[in-house]
Amino acid sequence: MDLRSILQKHGFEFKKQFGQNFLTDVNLLESIVSLSGIDENTTVVEIGCGAGTLTRAIAQKAKKVYAFDVDVKLQPVLAETLAGLDNVEVIFRDFNKLDLKEFEREIGEYAVVANLPYYITTPLVTKLLEESELVKSASIMVQEEVALRFCAKEDTPDYGAITAAIALKGSAKIIKRVPRTMFMPRPNVDSAVVKIDFCRGRIPVLDEKAYRQTVKCAFLNRRKTLENNLINSFGVSRETSKQILSSCGIDEKARGETLSPERLANLADELKRREIL
Fold this sequence. Notes:
Elements: H1 3-9, E1 22-23, H2 26-36, E2 43-47, H3 53-59, E3 64-68, H4 75-81, E4 88-91, H5 100-107, E5 110-115, H6 121-131, E6 135-143, H7 144-150, H8 161-169, E7 170-178, E8 183-184, E9 191-198, H9 208-218, H10 226-234, H11 238-247, H12 261-273
Parallel strand pairs: 2-3, 2-5, 3-4, 5-6
Antiparallel strand pairs: 1-8, 6-9, 7-9
Helix pairs in contact: 2-3, 6-8, 8-12, 9-12, 10-11
């Protein structure tokens, strides 16, 4: 498939605001699909299907593909690149604005496989973490620096709020690195495919919302101690802040980024028990 010729034929122009960087290498596309772990029994949701090159590779392996994109100008391109595939449904909608629970009732369990537009990466992952009940895994192409953040360990520079948010619901690992030279047009950064395997209840908490609020507090200001962030986030006194940390076995001078997701969960539960959250 000569994607460049197809795009030219239909007068398609890349739109920077949509973060459009397409993949064309067949071996790479097949490798991404293989590493995602999908098979003929898997329903797949693809977000940002672009010109449909990854969509085609997914469809050749999966049971059904729901391919989302916001750029309706891709319609004639996709009609050509996805010709002959009867298990693909292209949906021109913003996935991040979707009523996810309603959509999941229609399609059942599914996996996400996607070359994500960079600007929607964190909002999309957050949506899956907070709203999804039926996603089993997400194999997503993201900026390499974001991939490192998703998989980071506590007390490292890459560890942050999104790392801790993912850890509550699943485990993330980098399954493939992809240099910028593989994209059309070429972006300014290298990429990586991260696979998140969802496991609800992986870290037990009294209240998921309280955990999210605690994580937000912990990373409110990375340079400040957790004691100060508790005071600034929840309006507790310094003495109460010290008591909370002491009851969780946390040093009062500790910073939020030094706490593992499990220890953040313990802190969230303590704040919940004290009715601070």
